[in-house]
Amino acid sequence: MDYLFYLKELAEEKLKLGKFKTAQNYLSAGRSFGVYLRYAQRVKDLPIESLTRDLLVDYERYLHDSRGLRRNSSSAYMRALRAVYRRAVDDGLSAQPDPFGRVYTGVDRTLKRAVDARLVSRLVALQLPSQALRVSRDMFVFSFYARGMAFVDLAKLTYGNVRRDRLVYQRSKTHQLISVKIEPPMRTIIDRYARGRSPYLFPVLREIPFNPSEYNSALRTYNNHLHRLSREVGASGTLTSYVARHTWATTAQRLSIPTRVISESMGHTDEATTHIYLASFDVDQIDAANRKILKAVSPAKAKKSGMKKEENAETMVLAPMPSVAYCSTSTLYSADVAGSERIEMRTGLDD
Predict the structure, then answer these.
(1) pTM
(2) CA 54, 60, 64 angle in degrees (round to 5)?
(3) End-to-end CA distance of the chain, in Å?
(4) What letters, b where the CB count within 10 A reaches 16 and e where it falls short, cover 114-125?
C-alpha cells in the first residue's frame, strides 16, 4: 500500500474520533513528505516497505537545508510520520525494522513561552480600536483566568458548559473533564458576549458540529491578532495561543503552588508519576489556587508595576462593555486575515 494514501486514511480516522490536532499533524507531515518525494526523489507513490532509513535521513537533510526548518520542526514531522508507520506495522503492512532510528525525533529545549503575569493586567487595560482585537484580547485573558484553558477548548465552549458558578468542559486533547470556578472577572467577560443566537460562548465559531477547517481559520486569525497585541502592550516576546497557558503555569510555580496542584488544575494526564502516586485534589483546593493566580494580577499588583491610575486593570476587567453581536465578530474570525501565519505543527512542548 502507498504510504501517503495510508497516512490520509489514518488522518480521516482521527478526524472521526475528534482528534483534530493529531489529524492535522499527520496531514501537515504528509504534505511536506509528499513535496519532498515529488521534487527531490521524483516519485509520486511510496510503498510502505520502501520507507527506509536512508530515505528518511535524506528527507531530514532536505528539511534543514532546503526548507530551513529547525530541529524541533523537522522532529515534529518525523514523529507524525513515525506514528503512521508504527500503525502500519501493527496492521501487518510492513515487517521491516523501525526506519526512524537515524533521524531526530526528540524535542530540544526552547525559550519559555510564558510572559510576566503583569502583562495580563496591561492587556486588560488596553484601549483597542478594533472590535476583533478586543475579542482576541478578551479570549487570551479569559484563557489565563481559566487556568490556562487551551484555545480549542475556549472556542468550543457553549452555554451548556456553564453550570451555575462553574465552567465544566472536556479537554479536547485528553478528554479529561475539567471544572473551573467562574471568578468575577471571568463572569464579566462571559456576560460581554452573551447576546446572539449562537450556542457558542465566544464569537469565534458558527458551525455545529465542530468544523476543523473553520477552527483552523479562527486559530490563524487569533494568533495574528495576538502578534499585533504583543506590539500594543510592549511584550518582550510574541504572544501566541499557548502563552496564556504557559504563563498561568509559570505564575503558579513562582507563587509556590505545588506542581501536583498545577498538574491537576491544568488537566494534565501525561504527568504519569504525579497521577500514580497522588490522588486527585479536592476541587476547593484547585479553586483556591486559581484565586491566588488572579490575585497576582489584581489592580494592586498593577499599581506596583507603574501603571497609571486610568489604566487600572479593575476598571477594564469589571467595567461593563457593549455586548457584541455574534454575526459581526464571527465574520471577522471565520475568514483568514492578510499576512496571517501558517499553523505551526506542535512540537510536543504544549499541553
Answers:
(1) 0.66
(2) 145
(3) 34
(4) bbbbbbbbbbbb
Where do we find the cell 531530514? 60
Alpha helices in the chain (DSSP H): 3-16, 20-39, 53-65, 71-90, 118-125, 131-145, 151-156, 184-192, 212-233, 243-254, 259-266, 272-277, 283-296, 299-304, 313-318, 326-334
**More confident call, 334 vs 301:** 301
Reference 345, options 5, 33, 3; nearest CA is 33
Taking the C-alpha atoms of residue 58 and residue 67, their distance in angstroms, rounded to an integer, is 13
Q: Report d(CA 240, CA 349) in Å as an integer.
A: 14
CB 94 within 8 A of CB 85: yes
69/169 same-domain check:
no
Q: What is the mean pLDDT of the chain?
A: 80
Which cell goes with 111? 525559550
Tens digit of each residue's pLDDT (9 = 90 or more) over 41-54: 999 899 999 999 99
Q: Provide the 3-class DSSP secondary structure of residue 170.
A: strand
Residue indicated by cell numbers 443566537: 197
Contacts within 8 Å (CB) and 24+ apart, 258-263 = 261/285, 261/286, 261/289, 262/289
Helix (H, G, I), strand (E, B) or coil at 178: strand
For residue 279, report the phi and psi dihedrals to the nearest 5 degrees: -75, 160
Q: Which domain holds residue 299?
A: 118-334
Cα atoms found within 13 Å of the Cα of residue 95, Cβ hemisphere only:
1
146 with 58, same domain: the answer is no
CATH number of the domain residue 47 falls in: 1.10.150
Give me the mean pLDDT over the 184-196 stretch. Answer: 90
CA atoms within 13 A on the CB side of 140: 35
